[in-house]
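Inputs:
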Amino acid sequence: MNDKIVVENLYKIFGPDPRDALALVRRGLDKDEIFARTGNTVGVCDASFTVREGEIFVIMGLSGSGKSTMVRMFNRLIEPTAGSISIDGRDITKLDEAGLRDLRRKTISMVFQSFALLPHIKVVDNVAFGLELAGMSREERRERALAALEQVGLAANAESYPDELSGGMQQRVGLARALAADPPILLMDEAFSALDPLIRSEMQDELIRLQDEKKRTIIFISHDLDEAMRIGDRIAIMQGGIVVQVGTPDEILKNPANEYVRSFFRGVDISKVLTAADIATKTQVTIIDKPEQGPRAALRLLGDFDREYGFVIGRGRRFAGVVSVSSLEQARRDNASLDAALVPEVATVLPEAPLHELMGVVATSPHPVPVVDDQGRYRGVVSRTSLLQALDNLPAETGTDAETQAQSPAEAVPQQPSPVAAAGE
Amino acid sequence: MQTLSFNPLYPFETLEIPFDDWVEVAFDWIAGARPVFQAIRRPIDWVLEGITDLLLFLPPGLMIALLALVAWQIVGGRLALGTALSLFFVGLIGAYEQSMVTLALVLTAVFFCAVIGVPLGILAARSDRFETGLRPVLDTMQTTPAFVYLVPIVVLFGIGNVPGVIVTIIFAVAPLIRLTNLGIRQVPKDVIEAANAFGASGRQLLFKVQLPLATKTIMAGVNQSLMLALSMVVIASMISVGGLGQMVLRGIGRLDMGLAVIGGIGIVVLAIVLDRMTQALASSERERGGRRFVERGPIGLVRGLSAGRTASAAAAATQRRG
Ligand SMILES: Nc1ncnc2c1ncn2[C@@H]1O[C@H](COP(=O)(O)OP(=O)(O)O)[C@@H](O)[C@H]1O
Ligand SMILES: [Mg+2]
């Protein structure tokens, strides 16, 4: 994916003498010291990161951590004190007035926490507002405004006034207004924070749906972790004006940069955030299913590793089934093939299943539950221990590199701790 | 005769500043700039004359009907009836012509109040420094008794209707400036921010966001200016401004109660009618039943009728064709 927005060493200092304060920040003084000494407030301090094209990039942080300041520098509602912001390789901190207006009309639009609709004009005119500013003709902008309202499911309310709509509907209007000019970049400052939880998750779904229809680059500010995890492709976490961590939700969840970041996740219901793939382990005995393979080699392997169960994998890492010591012994006695030793009715789970849906299956299964994706590929297992460890928020020996393994050549031997019975032994 | 020596207990027997002389000299000097004041007079003269001619040109019966229609359009049927009846009564007691003169004076004053006050209010809203500088000036204008600046106005502009309008403007413009400033400053920050975020220029921000959202407050300012202008009518007549104020003043001078009360009634009738109309203009269309201006009152009626006629004509035409 291309880098859409590149932020480099960006600073914003509010107050009487930002230059002075900037020198102090660069010397390493912290926000409080600088305020005490100079009366300047550090809004954003030395931020550098990139936002990729077509992703939803969530900026999270406590109130006052500089999220709004950051996002307003992207369309220069707030002028950066130092540093650069490049959009498609063009440094927008250097734009003149006309260039800036053009950027705001065509490239970046914004959705506000308070909706910020114009109360004296109708919904359709609100949606057309940006187009009107850009000088589009009445008919054309009306047509496009109606199309934008259609996208958010509000076409029927075009002729209403904003105060006749509920909060959720007003924010749909806000969203339609931002979509009307079809800009590649959308800034959303706590856009859903003023809505009640039900409407809020509805709007999140709506946003994801819109994103599926057409990929835009969305910078989404939130102070709510659940929201961030739900919609964010990547998350940046801000603390006191500093971007302390940038990563995918999983990366941050598993490897919080500091105590502040960790504290965000303290209240998180892990069982809803983590999925089977996140905690699937690959330390079980896997047995490659080859036609000439018999139960004998598998039995020895299980014996060597002192395991009760083995997981049989066929061509293309396709999951074939589970064998146990007793079923293998039965097969050996009958002189049957490995297939005959497969335990009947093995429950499997999908990699994207959240943990809370696994509990029942894992609790009733006599063996660890295999994680099998919708292509039938084996992705590891979830054991009672790993599930409990994950729910207890303890670092488990999880298969962080589940993905790389899935991509490895089908016949290749899974990496070390995983013992394998290969063919022709 | 013995010369007085300075006594600190009675300092003013020997010390005196000839302040009144200085003021006179200053005014003489300012009055030297007569062309400037003539230039100020001119536009006021034009507007006043235009409005007066218009009001007095139509025969009273027609004029009253017209004003009633205007009241109907802006406010509603009840005020229209009230306007017609009370103006008719004013005419019956012999003050119709004076009422029209006073109406013309007041409308002219308010017109210039708007021309001066709204831009100043906008400037004050845009610049804190300008607002800080303007505030004591407005305070002075509003609190100084009108009698005090009657004299300098007479010195600079002479007497008559035009200086009367100028006095009235000075007295009545302050609330309009204040309320324009207030109305614009009250526009929610987030709406301004949104307009900026969508690329509004300074002009677009003013005309598409700030002024529309401040209209209500600005119209309240117009209403106040109008009421203050009416309250100046009697005082202004002291510099020989005609109309109802002149009736009152003459009535008081001659202890002619009848004349004074007739003038008073005329002023009150104008005040009530104008107050109701400007208040109605201040409330938005939506607060008054949601029908657009042109869909209400006499205009709406005419439009409805003509639309009905064209519709039926069209229907007839199709029938004929069919
Ligand atoms: N216009 C301003 N003047 C001075 N300080 C400001 C201004 N705007 C924001 N700040 C300060 O900058 C910091 C970051 O604010 P903000 O970006 O609004 O935080 P957030 O959106 O994360 O709650 C806060 O300490 C705030 O007080
Ligand atoms: Mg904020």
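The radius of gyration of chain A is 27 Å. Flag for discussion at group meeting.
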